[in-house]
């Protein structure tokens, strides 16, 4: 069995650089606050460990060998990397460096997510973000498997994860109706993208509903069905789609109407208008989005993001 050589100490590499800069063992020893004999012995030990000569020594001169000259810049880079370890470790411990893997539902991409990323990036510019769009059910699976650090989801969470996952509500917003411009014209609503005049769900009862499949977004699906139920209506499901962009595109193609969170009106699509939903029973229907993460695994980077979320919630009073 081949015998492994002992690891080379960084101390010996620093000695090598100092001697190479001074080209004199006496001056190098003075810089290193040591005597010359131990320094000479250390350089010999380094040469023995590397199996090459680094210096050509005479009684009056010290010069680098060709190998020593080529090795010097590599050793300097290695020492610079080693010197950077301590501040990097401290930055990681403070959550100022590292990677945050964040998943999000498509509805968060048009209001909540950009604001959170802007605040987080301003406070922690050294953190690298890995963003993944996914439905709430997929996010929970990815979280439990440890493949993402946190997710922006629409509750509720599966009861079986009540103790292993932590959750904080971030924002609540009303549902609005997305309809084609032609449908809005027929209701006397005009064709502007956004107007404050509410629409009664009864006026659109005959229109097919474009919606998420319940198995992928049970929280949002049940809220939408609840709106119809509160109005005494049963919707006719026209199309199902798993992304908000697709739902809005189907609406623009005249395939039906959709009930979407209000922030989706920032998703401008030719031929689509958004209108407030007239409340049934006197109160508007709100959709909640929250942050979920593994309760037992909160890295410093994730703790910083959670702090941003809580700070924004407190400052805006959105929840």
From TrEMBL:
Protein origin, superkingdom: Bacteria
UniProt GO MF annotations: DNA binding; DNA-binding transcription factor activity
UniProt KW Transcription keyword: yes
InterPro entries found in the cross-reference section: LysR_HTH_N, LysR_subst-bd, WH-like_DNA-bd_sf, WH_DNA-bd_sf
Pfam family, one: HTH_1
Residue runs in coiled coils: none
Cellular compartments per GO CC: protein-DNA complex
Domain named HTH lysR-type: residues: 8-65
Keywords recorded for this protein, A-Z: DNA-binding, Transcription, Transcription regulation
Similarity-based family: Belongs to the LysR transcriptional regulatory family.
Protein name: LysR family transcriptional regulator
């Amino acid at each position: 069995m081949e015998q492994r050589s002992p690891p080379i100490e960084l101390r010996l590499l620093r000695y090598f650089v100092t001697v190479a800069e001074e080209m004199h063992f006496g001056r190098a020893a003075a810089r290193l606050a040591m005597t010359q004999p131990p320094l000479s012995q250390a350089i010999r030990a380094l040469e023995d460990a590397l199996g090459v000569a680094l210096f050509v020594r005479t009684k009056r001169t010290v010069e680098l060998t060709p190998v020593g000259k080529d090795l010097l810049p590599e050793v300097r880079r290695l020492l610079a990397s080693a010197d950077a370890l301590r501040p990097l470790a401290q930055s990681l411990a403070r959550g100022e460096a590292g990677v945050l893997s964040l998943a999000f539902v498509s509805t968060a991409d048009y209001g909540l997510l950009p604001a959170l990323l802007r605040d987080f990036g301003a406070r922690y510019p050294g953190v690298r973000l890995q963003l993944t769009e996914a439905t709430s059910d997929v996010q929970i699976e990815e979280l439990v498997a440890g493949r993402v650090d946190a997710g922006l989801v629409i509750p509720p969470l599966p009861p079986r994860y009540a103790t292993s996952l932590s959750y904080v509500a971030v924002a609540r917003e009303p549902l609005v109706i997305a309809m084609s411009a032609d449908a809005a014209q027929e209701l006397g609503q005009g064709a502007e993208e956004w107007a404050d005049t509410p629409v009664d769900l009864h006026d659109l009862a005959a229109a097919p509903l474009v919606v998420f499949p319940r198995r992928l977004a049970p929280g949002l699906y049940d809220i939408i069905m609840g709106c119809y139920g509160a109005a005494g209506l049963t919707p006719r499901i026209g199309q199902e789609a798993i992304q908000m962009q697709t739902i809005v595109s189907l609406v623009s193609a005249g395939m039906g109407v959709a009930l979407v969170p209000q922030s989706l009106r920032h998703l401008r699509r030719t031929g689509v208008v958004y209108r407030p939903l007239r409340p049934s029973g006197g109160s508007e229907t709100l959709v909640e989005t929250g942050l979920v993460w593994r309760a037992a695994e909160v890295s410093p980077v994730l703790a910083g993001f959670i702090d941003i979320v809580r700070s924004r919630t407190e400052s805006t009073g959105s929840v």
